[in-house]
Amino acid sequence: MIGRVRTTHGVRGELKVESLSGETKHFTGLSRVRLIRRDGRGPVERETREVESVRLAHRLVLLKLTGVDSPEAAKRWRGWEIAVDRADAAPLAQGEYYYADLVGLTVFVDGEERGRVTDLWEGGPTVMLGITRSDGEERLVPFQAEFVASVDLEEGSLVLETDEVIA
Predict the structure, then answer these.
(1) I want to staple 82 with a disulfide (CB 3.0 to 4.6 A). Which of 3, 5, 60, 108 is the partner?
(2) Cα 106 to Cα 31, 45, 54, 100, 147, distances in angstroms
């Protein structure tokens, strides 16, 4: 996921898109996007569309999809998420991760397996990891250095600083 359609823009059917990473430059090279509409339980509808043009406007992206030529036609996409192939996503800096890579990691504390990352939640000042413990109980842990000691994508592991955060 690289963005979320906020509203329409102008009379040509452009979409105002919020970048989920805060970066916008990677939008300029897009030729195709996948649009996903979700409800509280996950994806409900998906559609792939060709990109006609992209303009950057401050922190927003003005995205024009082929065949969407009026504000009325563009309204359909309000609230939809925009996904692309990984090669078209924003490059990561050291210590940054794509959310999709974190889900499924095995959680360890003091060398002992304690569960799995099963979800991620946004909505406050930090991302929360949804962790399902080995006993089936679910916990939320802030994805911050004081709680997460390390992430190793090659090993498929996430190490927590202390057992107290999922106790």
Answers:
(1) 3
(2) 36, 30, 39, 14, 15
CA 98, 99, 101, 106 torsion: positive or negative?
positive
* Segment 106-112 mean pLDDT: 96
Q: Are 109 and 157 in contact (CB under 8 A)?
A: no
CB 48 within 8 A of CB 66: no
Which residue in 104, 90, 84 sits closest to 24, CA to CA? 90
- Going by pLDDT thresholds of 50, 70 and 90, the confidence category of residue 87 is confident
**Locate tokens 């996007």: which residue?**
33
70's CB contacts (< 8 A; 6+ apart) are 11, 12, 13
Handedness of CA 48, 50, 56, 57 (dihedral sign): negative
Q: Report the alpha-carbon distance of residue 25 to residue 28 in Å, rounded.
A: 6
- Burial class of residue 158, CB neighbours in 10 A (0-12, 13-18, 19+): buried
Question: Which domains are present in the chain?
Answer: 3-88 (2.40.30.60), 99-165 (2.30.30.240)
